Amino acid sequence: MKVLILGGGGREHAIAWRLAQSPSVTAVYATPGNPGIARVANCIAAPGNPEGWLRAAESVEADLTVVGPEAPLVAGVVDAFRAAGRAIVGPTSQAARLEGSKIFSKEFMVRAGIPTGGFVRAESEAEALAALDRFGCPVVLKADGLAAGKGVIIANTRAEAEAAIHGLLSGELVGKAGARLVVEEFLTGEEVSFIVLSDGRHVLPLAPTQDHKAVHDGDTGPNTGGMGAYCDSRILTAAERADVLDRIIAPTIERMSAEGSPFTGFLYAGLMMTDRGPQVLEYNVRLGDPETQALMHCVDSDFAEALMAAAHGDLAGAKLAWRADPSVCVVLASAGYPAAPRTGDAISGLDEAEALGATVFHAGTRAGAGVIETSGGRVLGVTASGSGLAGAIENAYRAVDKIHFDGMHYRRDIGHKGLKRWG
């Protein structure tokens, strides 16, 4: 089959890399792609709207289209493809509200009986400030709309919370996405990313992963889109996985169908494993980034076949094989990230890093004058597997040491929570 991937980040590079190795795939295309994706796929230009993406799929005669980022899903790309009779992996615009609107998402969880933290929706500073009295600090503040990973703020003090509320509602921080807020109870525990592929009725669970949102070691500093992730089957026990599927995933799929918006594609449940069981922090309606980089390193079967089965509503009985070795992805970020990323810095050492066995996924790069240079906040996802989690961590950071660009920074503790749990 011919597969088209929508997107140009690290997640899309990882998907393209994996699909390029699928026996059932004859050609991989991506729009817009990036210099890393161009090494494993054909990058093509297309207008950034559902009609433009549809024309791109038609132009390459794609048998299947896979949507990477959330924005095209919210914009209705799946609706356009289905109206034209083209196979695509992802939810409709109505179903994509699970990520497109934090208020819709939290209110849906209440209707579906999904375990989640307490919350208040707020459309004014007065409403938001009143909610602070209920939850105290620390408290979580979420912009209702899509904010490219910048719409969630954890405020540790009242002063921080008041400043964040003003910044979000005024539009100073994330523009129109912050016109409405969710003020949410702060939950404690370990975060886990649990992702399933759905055809609207059946689900195929992926291996559990753990993301690292804060910019600095020890989960300090502002939240980012993700500074690294690891994939290890031990993150959840078999009993915990069954519990998540039974209490969270199944009710979500069933309720979405009952409300007239069957969910197809990747459903991501961001979980906090608390002393009262798993609680949903958020839904995403696509694969996580950088979780995908770690996941694709662990897939040990034809990923394209599962995607095609989901697109055609035929996931019953589908399976994915997983490598036993864990994998680790370390994100290399640009100077100034996350507040004000600098671009245009030359990158060196990419080939040297991959010569050690790692895979370097491009997230924010572009082709400069004879050199690859930075073009975004999260620049590269250096990903490696190893014998045991400690081995994967060592292999990833050994490859990181080969790469350089001015202002490069990264966390040095990706996967360390797993080491503390299992040794």
Strand content: 25-35%
Structural domain tally: 4
Roughly how many Å apart are the termini?
A: 43 Å
What is the topology, as strand order, of the major beta sheet? Answer: 3-2-1-4-5
CATH class of the largest domain: Alpha Beta
How big is the Rg? 20 Å
Question: What do you see in this structure?
Answer:
- By secondary structure, this protein is an alpha+beta fold.
- It has four domains: 2-95, Rossmann fold, CATH 3.40.50; 124-179, Dna Ligase, domain 1; 188-311, D-amino Acid Aminotransferase, Chain A, domain 1, CATH 3.30.470; 327-422, Phosphoribosylglycinamide synthetase, C-terminal domain (Glycinamide Ribonucleotide Synthetase, Chain A, domain 4), CATH 3.90.600.10.
- 32% of the residues lie in helices and 26% in strands.
- The strands form six sheets. It has a five-stranded parallel beta sheet, with helices on both faces. The protein has a five-stranded antiparallel beta sheet with strand order 12-15-18-22-19. A four-stranded antiparallel beta sheet has the order 6-9-7-8, with helices on both faces.
- Strand 1, helix 1 and strand 2 (27-32) form a beta-alpha-beta unit.
- Helix 2 (50-59) packs across helix 4 (77-83) and helix 7 runs antiparallel to helix 8 (158-169).
- The protein is globular, with a radius of gyration of 20 Å.
- The mean pLDDT is 97.
